[in-house]
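User: I'm curious whether this sequence folds into something compact or stays loose and floppy. Could you predict its structure so I can see for myself?
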Amino acid sequence: MKRPAGAGLRPPARVYSAAAAGLALAVFLPALHHQFVGFDDGGHIYANPCLHPPSWGNAARFFLEPYNGIYMPLVFALWSALAALAGWARGGPVLLRDVPALFHGANLVIHALNSALVCELLLAAPGLRRKSPWLAFAGAALFAVHPLHVEPVAWASGMKDLLSGFFFLLSLRVYLLFAERGFRSKPLYVACLAAYGLSMFAKPSGAAWPFVVLALDLWVFRRRARAAVVWAGFAALLSLPFAALNSALQPTTYIGTLTPVWTRPLVALDALAFYLAKLFVPLELLPDYGRTPAWVVASGRAYWTWLLPAALAAGLLRVWGAGETLAGAALFAAALLPNSGLLPFQNQIASTVADRYAYLAILGASWTLAHLLRRARAPGAAAAALAIAACALLSRRQLRYWRDTEALARRVVEANPESVTFQTAMGSVEWVQGRTGPARARYAQALRLRPTYYPARERLGLLDLAEGRLEDARREFRACLGSPNPADAAMAQTRLAQVALREGRVAEARRRDLEALRLRPRSPEALADLARTLEREGAGAARIGSLASELRPAFVCAGGPPLDLWPARIGDSAGRE
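Assistant: Here's the prediction. I'll summarize afterward.
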């Protein structure tokens, strides 16, 4: 058989995958020099007592029970490994807040691997298998550099989205092999489900996998609808335990006022329209958009934003009826389903939409771009290249906002002044800078926007405590006891113990510390405070030493008097999705 002209000069397919990974590294490399930010990084990483020091026992514990109200054991296990690596490199214990580059570097590597996997997926796609590998590279390049990926890549805590995405994409790659062999290979079937399961051990949103596979079966492999639905349904059953656990850990009572059930499809369609808009015009990207279900319904947007995804779906069906192109749109929508708002989830208290939720959805855009370029002439290909280059430049620009807490908080409050999370974070930045007046005003503003935002109330109480206004501090901390979140209530008990200790009521302080530990076992703040209370009581070294295995990591995380902890953990709110 005669080979096509120039075939001998074509690089191996893996070169294109490596090029996609290299492109991702080149664009996101500045993140390596970023600091941790006060947006879960403290609770998850640098103030996590289970990582100070890491141990096999603590790593196993992450699989046996949730940590900080969230179950993502693979991510915590990987962070444990990184903490162990940091200790080995330094020749002894290390404060993780001093080595953010290690965790940012891990995010960069995983995103680069994911970009390579997307290229491998596109190279193996039935509609592209015998086409130029440049088509697959173009799709993977869009995935590698899209600005929507800045948040999960540049945010150390975003590893959950990246690691879940890695196993998700790996499972899809194995599924394509499974399909190539006529859906008959049992080892590939088992490997596919295993990778899918691992994606949910990193983050429950991996549950989108059955919907993505259903889209592939119906529009790419042309399987009979019944067989496709049965396969997807069986895979969906595997996600039920993770969904049930996540629902129990993050009950929707935390959200506050929920919109009626009949509005949820409208909220989900609004989210889809939002992500489509950001896909094509990735500007004004924020970690907190304030797009809550109540806001979407009250603003009236829920009743018309669905027109954008509906028009796009109609256009694809009418103009590009090819299954592979339509599959790309279905992949985009299916990957967004777990966090679309069809089922309520805890982070909807701040916003239904977030850039990190779109991490896997960009695969659908990559798939569509690669298939559309099959028919494109030179102007179309040039336009695609310019769009990818523009995305790379926009990502570089967006990265600078994630360099530290102050840059991120300042950016968010300028664009979304109603963000209670970042008003509080900005207040903590100002407090550290010695500007207690503006800090107090920020906390008060956050509480005006949402009176039940307990982190802001706690910061306000801490500021009162630092300034010696003990009665005001007690009032703020007592208000936090009403939180439905046990972590907030535990922290309030710890703070009330600190007030009691300041007033010399040692017995009350000990009682409140023990109550905090009942609500949140192994809380570093409560353990550290209990040790100080025991010391004030005059407890012997043996009594305090009996808690040594738990107190040592608590003191490492707390790093001194209780008030020293919070400026180091600016704006943290543990357990965010």
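Summary: Confidence is low (pLDDT under 50) at residues 1-9, 551-577. DSSP finds 28 helices and no strands in the chain.
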